[in-house]
Design a protein that fits this description.
This protein is α+β, with helices and mostly antiparallel strands and 634 residues long. The protein folds into 5 domains: 88 residues, 3-Layer(aba) Sandwich (GIY-YIG endonuclease); 102 residues, no CATH class; 122 residues, Nucleotidyltransferase, domain 5 (2-Layer Sandwich), CATH 3.30.420; 144 residues, UvrC, RNAse H endonuclease domain (Nucleotidyltransferase, domain 5), CATH 3.30.420; 60 residues, DNA polymerase, domain 1 (Orthogonal Bundle). It is built from 20 helices and 20 strands. A hairpin with an 8-residue loop joins strand 5 and strand 6.
């Protein structure tokens, strides 16, 4: 930073007014955002040694290099601004909601003369009616499809009645899912009647439509119209499936969210039950990154601000596991967003308390399962890296680079470099090398070229960053591995050791040795082949690294061979440029099909004419036809 910031002096200038304060580190990154009734009192507390701030805040304070603040007229305004800034900057030391989910609605566009039923992720203050929110986008789409089949409402975006008769009816009319108001085939009054019936359905009045479908199914069966009867039976089943899910989100029913959490170390899960119109329509869970000693009240307080600042629907009541900080302020903020009174309550007995307890139990299950999954994943990755390090007698291994060469009889030799960090592939650091200095099938010389180019380039990048006084980038050629793994044994390892010696580097190198069946059997390290337990995670990781290096090299080689095949034949034909070459390959798919085609067939290809067609035909059937046989085979 080009300016000096005296924290003690700036603390004296803080106003005793509501506002938001923003903490920056030495790189000027925002690491914490908070709000205060009095900026002067709140911000000073961070720098008072006598106060018990907790480990997370203690650590944060040591990183603060400057702070700034924004004054507001009220604490409520400060809360709104704090929510926006946290969502925008995602500061490291704020309790952060990891998931950023939105929930869908069913929207009925009542402001239109011919309303539509649509899928919507937002809830606006317009003349439309909204149903939801729902936890499953698939369930919403299924419901909308069912409504269109039942009531034949339009889904197009034509401006009606202005555009009535301006175009033909769409496919939905022909498959009997729309009554085509765009053609005037249904009156406005009849269409509105269908819309009202659809609204009744969405409001939970399912009996009329079920009775109607049952009557139509029976009638069709009596008239031996069995296909039509089956259609009605399927509609009945669809109605029954969604019958328990649809309720309108107005103030008449009981709309509540139930929130409870489970926390362990720096991880927490908040479980939310969605109750709409008195019915539990779904649930969801959210992972939250927390401080080691954060209290449940603090976590829930942060979750409520982040989650409900982004959702378009606010229920009338939040039922919580514990009393949160700033309850009255949160109620005031949520009430303003909803436009109606919102309450935060902690049930102490009865069915409501049991529902909160159920949410807490679900949160614990999710947290436990997630931690078990993470533990298994760490066993496959970080744990496997530790096993390999232990086998090689190394303290630790974080970054591994593996190399392989691919060619066919020396044709288009290529090299691959794959990178694994913490046991996982880091594909952004993968590199491909086209061999330049080696002629013929010489894998050792090709490996030497690849390694020399890779590490020479890396040393050059490191020198340039040092000259510019820049920090080393995380990745790319400038990051050197803790271990180099060669696809092979003694020969490949010795080539790599020679390159390291030539460049003045000291990086451990081992070979991934395969048996006679081309399966990994062990590691060649410091002139000794080390056997590995084939059931261990370390062995499985080595196999994945070797397979990945081989796959990456082969894919690159195959792409070059494909380009070489097309170029070596079609580009040698006079009068065939890139456009005609592309058109020929698109039309015939292979060189063999082009060779078998007649002149007239070739001339029919777009961009070809009779003269160019004869050129192609003569090329394959004249003196040059033997050149096709010289193509390298896969």
């Amino acid at each position: 930073m080009e300016f000096s910031f005296n924290i003690e002096e700036e603390l004296k200038k803080l106003p005793a007014r509501p506002g938001v304060y923003i903490m920056h580190d030495e790189n000027d990154a925002i690491i914490y955002v908070g709000k205060a009734i009095s900026l002067k009192n709140r911000v000073r507390q961070y720098f008072q040694s006598s106060r018990n701030k907790g480990p997370k805040i203690e650590q944060m304070v040591t990183r603060i290099r400057r702070f700034e603040y924004i004054v507001t007229d009220s604490e409520l305004e400060a809360l709104v601004l704090e929510c926006n800034l946290i969502k925008e900057h995602r500061p490291k030391y704020n309790t952060m909601l990891k998931d950023d989910k939105t929930y869908p609605f069913i929207k009925v566009t009542m402001g239109e003369e011919y309303p539509r039923v649509l899928f919507s992720r937002t809830m606006k203050k317009d003349k439309s009616k909204y149903f939801g929110p729902y936890t499953s986008a698939g369930a919403v789409k299924d419901t909308i499809d069912l409504i269109r089949k039942l009531y034949k409402l339009r889904s197009c975006n034509r401006s009606l009645p202005k555009e009535i008769g301006s175009d033909r009816p769409c496919l939905n009319y022909h498959i009997k899912q729309c009554n085509a108001p765009c053609q005037g085939y249904i009156s406005k009054e009849e269409y509105r009647k269908s819309v009202d019936e659809a609204l009744d359905f969405l409001n939970g009045h399912y009996a009329p439509v079920l009775n109607m479908l049952e009557e139509k199914m029976q009638k069709a069966a009596e008239e031996m119209e069995f296909e039509e009867a089956i259609t009605y039976r399927e509609l009945i089943n669809s109605v029954k499936q969604v019958a328990q899910k649809q309720k309108i989100t107005n103030g008449d029913g009981e709309d509540k969210d139930v929130l409870a959490l489970a926390a362990e170390d720096t991880d927490a899960v908040v479980q939310v039950f969605f109750i709409r119109g008195g019915r539990l329509i779904g649930r969801d869970h959210f992972f939250v990154k927390i401080g080691l000693y954060d209290r449940k009240a603090t976590i829930l307080n942060s979750f409520i601000k982040q989650f409900y600042s982004g959702t378009p629907f606010i229920p009338r009541e939040l039922m919580l596991e514990v009393e949160v900080e700033e309850r009255e302020l949160l109620e005031q903020w949520l009430t303003g967003k909803r436009g109606q009174r919102v309450s935060l309550r902690v049930p102490k007995k009865g069915t409501k308390e049991k529902l909160v307890e159920l949410a807490r139990q679900n949160a614990e299950i999710v947290l436990h399962q997630d931690r078990e999954r993470i533990k298994r994943e760490e066993g496959r990755t970080i744990g496997a890296m530790k096993e390999v390090a232990q086998l090689l007698g190394m303290d630790r291994i974080n970054r591994v680079e593996a190399y392989d060469i691919s060619n066919i009889s020396g044709f288009q030799s290529v090299g691959s470099m794959v990178v694994f960090e913490k046991g996982k592939p880091k594909r952004s650091d993968y590199r491909k090398f086209r061999i330049k200095s080696v002629q013929g099938p010489d894998d050792y010389a090709s490996l030497e070229e690849v390694l020399t180019r890779r590490f020479s380039h890396g040393l050059q990048e490191q020198r340039e960053m040092k000259e510019k006084n820049l920090e080393q980038e995380l990745g790319g050629f400038s990051s050197f591995p803790d271990l180099i793994m060669m696809d092979g044994g003694r020969g490949q390892v010795n080539v790599a050791l020679r390159v390291m010696e030539k460049l003045g580097l000291s990086i451990p190198i081992c070979g991934m040795v395969k048996d006679d069946f081309h399966r990994t059997r062990g590691l060649y390290y410091q002139n000794v082949e080390l056997p590995i337990d084939q059931c261990s995670e370390g062995f499985k990781l080595i196999t994945r690294i070797q397979d990945e290096a081989h796959r990456f090299a082969i894919e690159y080689h195959r792409s070059l061979r494909t380009k070489g095949q097309v170029h070596s034949i079609l580009d040698d034909i006079e009068g065939v440029g890139p456009a005609r070459r592309k058109a020929l390959m698109k039309a015939f798919q292979s060189l063999e099909a082009i060779r078998m085609a007649g002149v007239e067939e070739l001339a029919k290809v777009p961009s070809m004419n009779m003269a160019s067609a004869r050129q192609v035909y003569n090329f394959f059937h004249g003196e040059k036809s033997a050149s096709v046989d010289k193509l390298p085979k896969e």
